[in-house]
Write a structure and sequence with these properties.
By secondary structure, this protein is α/β, with parallel strands linked by helices. It has helices spanning 42-50, 83-88, 92-110, 116-131, 137-147, 164-177, 194-206, 218-224, 243-278, 285-297, 364-371, 407-414, 423-429, 446-458, 476-488, 500-506, 525-534, 558-595, 599-602, 605-637, and strands at residues 3-13, 16-27, 31-35, 57-62, 68-71, 182-186, 210-214, 227-232, 235-240, 323-333, 339-349, 353-357, 379-384, 390-393, 464-468, 492-496, 509-514, 517-521. It is built from 20 helices and 18 strands.
């Protein structure tokens, strides 16, 4: 059986241990994940196993003939040939085996004695070629490329025409085509959409070889792996089971670790307090020195950053009407011929968590850009409801960040006053830890800028968040922090994500897009999958949106339709007026409450009582206005 075994591997960068007596064994049938905090050394360990980095010490044993293939996180580009030709390069090992087979075949033909050693090698090569799928390589290459999202027409395109994300898909496809004994995959899902991820999940479940992968997609790990290696404080430990099972076991262990950490911190505090109080006194100097020795001997317990559970709430979402966005007959084309969006009707209501799903090129990002007001080159109408304020995050949001401010200074400029004390914790949750918060914006990487742009957006008081791939560049802990905040968010969320676990936890409605078509599913992602299995995408049923319930879609008489439209416009104007009045009274109430801190007010009993009466009047008025607004919203819902 093919295997690769590494024992007591150690590696240090300067005075920092990256790997310390690490042991790992990979073989055919291994289905393992490698996890650990950002910067813990996961990618380094994979490169050691791949033979790219040499360890400082340790032993390794690799079964003769074992083939190991490695996919890095990023940085691979291809050029100078077609996709089909590039894919064929993945089979270079087969060409080498075939050349050796032919060479030995010629020797056997020339030698009537046919030496047994040559015969054995010849048959060994024939067997290797057959088992590797060499004779089915063209079909296998096409199957893998199509599974990862390429089309038949892409096969004859020049590889340099593909973007960075698609370049990494080519690299992933080539690694899979090699069908090695052991696969090493570092973040293989980073550039895959949901359909490609689903295909890769099935590929890995059926894979006969072994693999070790790093991923921040919890669902992907749960359905593909059967054991987890955790790299923690430079040491490696193996946990059986899928990722969720590992988290449950680790949670219990970490609770014990935290308890011991807190106990140790209390002991350290007492020792330091004694040394500080009595270190300078002659009568206690010897005892203080003894305490110092005890303090120096303590083996400090370190907690990983992921244990520092962070929860933050968005600034309070401003009031908005029931109808947040109304889209009617939206059509968008980039070339004047092919319509990405074609006659889309959609109503997004207050509190919705709507995910746009569909293959790459189906119009998801285009729709989000239009809803956010970033793209006005379309036909049809997109109308925001009363009091709606929009916050938009896209993958190019990072490009808009520049300047000499530090990360912390940038956020302090935009954060509401009540959130400023929490900024360091929030930055930690988004992977800006320690001195990272003092980095200048200009020196940040693309991933760091993307995380910062997302956090910067989340500090703004808006009631409609439009998020395009918000979980990119986040680890699992950061995703959990973001997910909890979005669940508690008082407004509306429209988003695109390729992280299935994130979608399943957040989405309350699913808009499925395909070129020129759309279908709305009034339920979570699980419901959407059930329905799409029963009802194919080319079903004659069209988008079922609330917009189609509008009077214009009903078979009513012209007069009734006109009267209904007039009534709807009147109700919308009334809703907008009430929203403005509510905002005005809320502002007035806030100013009155702030004035209670003024010495001129709180030092005067009469003035203080007068202000409190005005605050109560504002509260009463707000209750009245809110009741009126709810009544108007209810009547709008019936229109």
């Amino acid at each position: 059986m093919a295997f690769a075994q590494f024992t007591h591997i150690s590696l240090a960068f300067g005075d920092r241990d990256i790997l310390k007596n690490v042991s790992v064994k990979l073989q055919s049938g291994t289905k393992a994940a490698l996890t650990g905090a950002n910067g813990s050394g996961k990618s380094t360990l994979i490169k050691v196993i791949a033979g790219i980095i040499a360890p400082d010490s340790g032993e390794q044993a690799v079964q003769k003939g074992t083939r190991i293939a490695y996919l890095p996180q990023s940085g691979i580009t291809h050029q100078g040939c077609t996709l089909r030709e590039e894919a064929d390069r993945a089979f270079s090992f087969g060409y080498e085996l075939e050349a050796e087979r032919d060479r030995i075949g010629d020797l056997l033909a020339q030698n009537p004695q046919k030496p047994e050693q040559l015969l054995e090698r010849y048959h060994e090569l024939v067997t290797q070629l057959e088992e590797s799928g060499w004779y089915r390589r063209s079909a296998a290459a096409e199957q893998i490329l199509l599974g990862l999202g390429f089309s038949h027409s892409d096969l004859d395109r020049q590889t340099q025409e593909f973007s960075g994300g698609w370049q990494m898909r080519i690299a992933l496809a080539k690694v899979l085509m090699q069908h090695p004994d052991i696969l090493l995959l570092d973040e293989p899902t980073n550039y895959l959409d949901l359909e490609a991820r689903t295909w890769l999940e099935q590929f890995l479940k059926d894979y006969s070889g072994g693999f070790l992968l790093v991923s921040h997609d919890r669902y992907f790990l749960d359905v593909t792996i059967s054991e987890v290696y955790e790299l923690f404080n430079a040491e490696l430990r193996l946990y059986p089971g899928n990722y969720s099972q590992y988290e449950q076991v680790r949670k219990t262990e970490l609770e014990s670790l935290i308890a011991r950490y807190e106990q140790q911190q209390e002991e350290i505090r007492k020792l330091e307090d004694f040394i500080r109080r009595f270190g300078a006194k002659a009568t206690k100097a010897a005892q203080a020195q003894e305490r110092q020795k005890m303090l120096d001997r303590i083996a400090r317990i370190e907690l990983p950053e992921t244990l520092k559970k962070i929860h933050f709430s968005f600034p309070r979402a401003p009031h908005a009407g029931r109808l947040v966005v109304t889209v009617q007959d939206l059509t968008k084309s980039y070339d004047g011929r092919r319509r990405v969006l074609d006659g889309l009707n959609l109503v997004i209501e207050n509190g919705d968590r709507l995910v746009a799903a569909g293959k790459n090129g189906s119009g998801k990002t285009t729709l989000l850009r239009i809803l956010a007001g970033e793209d006005a080159a379309y036909t049809g109408s997109v109308k925001l409801g009363a009091g709606v304020s929009v916050g938009y995050f896209s993958q190019d949001s990072a490009e808009r960040l520049s300047g000499s401010l530090t990360v912390l200074e940038l956020l302090e400029q935009d954060a509401p006053l009540e959130l400023i004390p929490k900024l360091r914790d929030m930055l930690g949750a988004f992977l800006f830890r320690g001195d990272d918060v003092f980095k200048r914006i200009d020196v940040l990487s693309g991933g760091e800028k993307s995380r910062l742009a997302l956090l910067k957006l989340l500090l703004r008081p808006v009631n409609l968040l439009i998020l395009d791939e918000p979980t990119n560049h986040l680890d699992m802990h950061s995703k959990d922090v973001l997910l909890d905040a979005l669940k508690d968010f008082g407004g509306t969320v429209v988003f695109v994500s390729h992280d299935r676990g994130f979608i399943e936890s957040l989405a309350t409605r699913v808009l499925e897009l395909s070129p020129g078509k759309a279908r709305l599913f009034p339920g979570g992602y699980g419901y959407y999958l059930e329905q799409t299995e029963r009802q194919p995408a080319d079903s004659p049923r069209e988008t079922a949106t609330a917009a189609q319930k509008a009077p214009s879609a009903l078979k009513v008489s012209w007069k009734e339709e006109k009267r209904s439209k007039m009534e709807r416009r009147r109700l919308e104007r009334e809703e907008e007026r009430l929203m403005d009045e509510i905002s005005r009274i809320e502002q007035q109430k806030a100013e009155l409450e702030a004035s209670l801190a003024d010495p001129a007010v709180y030092s005067s009993g009469i003035e203080s009582k007068n202000v409190q009466q005005q605050i109560q009047q504002c509260a009463t008025r707000l209750d009245e206005l809110t009741a009126q607004w709810e009544a108007v919203s209810s009547r709008l819902a019936q229109q």
